[in-house]
């Protein structure tokens, strides 16, 4: 932490932060992974620089000083740093143009909030923020775990003489969608094939709709340097046999949010259905399922079908690419154009999911019960 006079700030985990918050200001922000994204600032907040700290946006309690940063494309890991508040003023964070209840976003995992210094900022019952007087060195950081297109702040209680100080940075312009690592064997109509050898039109065996053609394939290379800098991009390694019934046949590497089928009597008792989908990262509480820390380069492949499917990777049932609202936000523009040309209806409605996916709390309970009772995740799948 740097502390200069009355004002202090934590060292934000970014290469770059926005330094001009005047209305109409534009620029390019560099993310921690080296990606860049353009932005435009709108609002009435003056740009301030106290005692040599990074320039930030000043916002007062009346709402006459407010700002919004709009990115040229969706970004992940956007973080707002807040300092210099007063206890008699309140602010709402504005996300994608809408003031939000921060309590709700914390509860559902959309944001992660940390504090440093005196840590006297408060999230109020209505989801606004207050506290953190200038003299106590309190810093609050709000990190968004889902993609956003714009961030800002507006005051709701207080006077013109009361203010807060905001900075904005981002982790990445990457998207985290369901994907298989290079080398994964996918079951096709002609037998298992490495995912990197598949092509649009190839017929893939699905769990509920027989053989289905691949409609779109996407891929992304992740270098060891980037993995070291962004460990959240490391794949999950599901060791051979870890799911039960000898599956997967070989070690299976998938992205963190890639959902695997859990099919068991425990799932039936909890949800009234035998088959549910759970992200791979949630399964790491179980033996032989871990974040892969080998630092080997990764190439992720995304397989899209006419509908969301359960397919077989190393013979284990696993989901195909699900193009839901959050995925659409995080797909790069060129890939999004290709997908919407194939499926224009995605702009109007959310596709049907292949199997139910429990809430985060339920996923944790489901995994804990399998662990406690030493039951396989694929006890009932057929």
From TrEMBL:
Q: Which parts of the sequence belong to the Hedgehog/Intein (Hint) domain?
A: 178-324
In terms of InterPro entries, this protein maps to: Hedgehog/Intein_dom, Hint_dom_sf
Pfam families, per this entry?
Hint_2
The highest taxon in the source lineage is: Bacteria
- Descriptive protein name: Hint domain-containing protein
- What is the organism field in this record? Yoonia tamlensis
Q: What is the lineage of its organism?
A: Bacteria, Pseudomonadati, Pseudomonadota, Alphaproteobacteria, Rhodobacterales
